[in-house]
Design a protein that fits this description.
Strand content: 15-25%
Number of helices: 17
Number of strands: 22
Bound molecules: nicotinamide-adenine-dinucleotide, 3-phosphoglyceric acid
CATH class of the largest domain: Alpha Beta
Radius of gyration: 30 Å
Helix content: 25-40%
Low-confidence stretches: none
Strand order of the largest sheet: 8-7-6-9-10-11-12
Largest sheet: 7 strands, parallel
Structural class: alpha/beta
Oligomer: single chain
Shape: elongated
CATH architecture of the largest domain: 3-Layer(aba) Sandwich
CATH topology of the largest domain: Rossmann fold
Length: 528
């Protein structure tokens, strides 16, 4: 195996490069490149390690002909075009926890800075003034903190704020009542939060639902004298409306670590506004957080490039260290079953369903489905993998269904793949022998037992004496060696299925010749 090559394109703790080298991954650290400069070199790399500065746009991805993985040393991935990466089969990962504490602490630091106007007081004092009577702060104790977004960072902020004896009200549609009780926060709708909070801090990603969540209209619903902190993403607060609300005195203070456009223009309207403070996207900038995210991203990228292990991926189901060894043989079975239906079923598939029963029903079905789709879609594209297969399948209008059966069947474990075709449903099923050897056990309702590997020949014929001899003869005369021979039939004298493994591919004229043998209904060369 050639050594994979990774580019670190944003400033990252040196531990990242050290880990790549230790793990046997070649690494180049080239930061500060323009988009065109990045496009010129990205084709050399299998992996890209970034923070928020590098923009992984469709044109960068188009030039990234060898790229397999983008690793974000941090949380937000709004600088990566994930749908485009998925189409290209590139995994996108982040490090969802490495900088959470640090960012929560930055939000708390901003809250104190606003409450006591520390930046202004510092600036004036160092300018030789002694403005002791100009700064009257507010206490945090007993005040209400409104949390918009109560995920990893929001819940750490909540714990810290409760420690400061604040009351915490949270708006987060995904926060369960049980989790709210566990955290000690009051779950509320947005309007209630806006009406109650003395301080509001934002901790959501930027999405279509959260963009301008603090709009002019919502700012008007806040308590007079509210103070606002955004250490999440620019664009959550309407900056023009915030400026107006600060100027009118409705908002008593605002602290932004993030801006809609970064870096903001030097003449940004908020700059110089009294009671406005800001930092240049420093939420994650501590030694501890940067070491955490650098180590995590380098380990995750190395794992994927060297072993196929997937952690914290955003566009493909993760495979944990415990799950991976159990799922690997299933994924091999699933890919073979998907490939089999893909090679045999005619076009215009409308639905594919993946059913699991027995031991398979206890596993994470998502990677199994992704592997089925990889096998299925391989007939359309050589560059298909677990990342882009589900996307390609959906693009072709395929409805994907997953069913987990809680029932005992004939096999200790079973994966069944059924596709709806114009000719009706076509179903194949497989199991694992000895827990790790994939075997086809049923094909279109007929029991067979076959290893799907290499070149194979599939024949449907009428079960009649002498047929096997005729096939053996035809292949033997053509110098084609049969490796294994698997036969299944509905009933004696009924329809039979023959699966032969061959030592070399079946030449086209021989396929035609076999087709002419008496009793043959279908012949197809297969490849696994
Ligand atoms: N300033 C920085 O340097 C810095 C550092 C780290 C993270 N961040 C940003 O902080 C944000 C939060 O990070 P996290 O790790 O807590 O993410 P998270 O995914 O753990 O939490 C986000 C929360 O937002 C909630 N949410 C989603 N849509 C919502 C909506 N419409 N209304 C209310 N809540 C909604 C989700 O349910 C979730 O609980 C991210 O945008 C991340 O990029 C910024
Ligand atoms: O989403 C994040 O992790 C933060 O915005 C940190 O970004 P940075 O790595 O550019 O500091």
């Amino acid at each position: 195996m050639t050594q994979p090559k990774v580019l670190i394109s944003d400033k990252m703790d040196p531990k990242a490069a050290a880990i790549f080298k230790e793990r046997g991954v070649q690494v180049d650290e080239i930061t500060g490149k323009t988009k065109d400069e990045l496009i010129a070199i990205i084709g050399d790399y299998d992996g890209l390690a970034i923070r928020s500065a590098t923009k992984v746009t469709p044109d960068v991805l188009a030039a990234a002909t060898n790229l397999k993985v983008v690793g974000r040393a941090g949380i937000g991935v709004d600088n990566v075009d994930i749908p485009e990466a998925s189409k290209k089969g590139v995994i996108v990962m982040n490090t969802p926890f490495g900088n959470s504490i640090t960012t929560a602490e930055h939000a708390i630091a901003m809250m104190f800075a606003l409450a006591r106007q520390i930046p202004e007081a510092n600036a004036l004092t160092q300018a030789g003034k002694w403005p002791k009577n100009d700064f009257m702060g507010v206490e945090l104790t007993s005040k209400t903190l409104g949390l918009i977004g109560c995920g990893n960072i929001g819940s750490i902020v909540a714990e810290r704020a409760l420690g400061l004896r604040m009351k915490v009200v949270a708006f987060d549609p995904f926060l369960t009542p049980e989790r709210a009780i566990e955290l000690g926060v009051e779950k509320a709708d947005l309007d209630t939060l806006l009406a109650k909070a003395d301080f509001i801090t934002l901790h959501t990603p930027l999405t279509d639902q959260t963009r301008n969540i603090l709009s002019k209209e919502n700012l008007a619903k806040t308590k007079k004298g509210v103070r606002i902190i955004n250490c999440a993403r620019g664009g959550l607060v309407d900056e023009a409306a915030l400026k107006e609300a600060l100027d009118s005195g409705h908002v008593a203070g605002a602290a932004l670590d993030v801006f809609a456009q970064e870096p903001p223009a030097a003449d940004h309207p908020l700059f110089g506004t009294p009671n406005f403070i800001c930092t240049p996207h420093l939420g994650a900038s501590t030694d501890e957080a940067q070491v955490n995210v650098a180590i995590q991203v380098a380990e995750q990228i190395s794992d994927y490039l060297l072993t196929g292990g997937i952690t914290n991926a955003l566009n493909v189901p993760s495979l944990s260290a415990e799950e991976a060894p159990k799922l690997r043989p299933y994924m091999s079975l699933a890919e073979k079953l998907g490939s089999l239906v893909g090679q045999l079923a005619h076009d215009n598939l409308t639905t594919i369903s993946v059913e699991v029963e027995g031991s398979a029903a206890e596993l994470n079905i998502k990677p199994i489905t992704a592997a089925v789709l990889t096998g299925l879609m391989r007939r359309y594209s050589d560059s298909v993998n677990m990342v882009n297969a589900p996307h390609l399948a959906r693009e072709r209008g395929l409805d994907i269904r997953e069913v987990r059966h809680d029932r005992e069947g004939d096999y200790h474990t079973l994966v069944r793949v059924t596709v709806a075709t114009e000719a009706g449903d076509r179903s194949v099923a497989g199991t694992l022998f000895g827990n790790n050897e994939p075997r086809l056990v049923e094909m279109f309702g007929i029991k067979v037992e076959a290893d799907l590997a290499g070149d194979m020949l599939y024949i449907v014929n009428e079960d009649a004496p002498g047929f096997i001899g005729r096939i053996g003869g035809a292949l033997g005369d053509a110098g084609l060696n049969i490796g294994t021979f698997h036969l299944g039939r509905r009933a004696a004298g009924g329809e039979a299925v023959l699966l032969l493994s061959l030592d070399s591919p079946m030449p086209e004229p021989l396929l035609w010749q076999v087709c002419q043998l008496p009793g043959v209904k279908t012949v197809k060369g297969l490849k696994f």
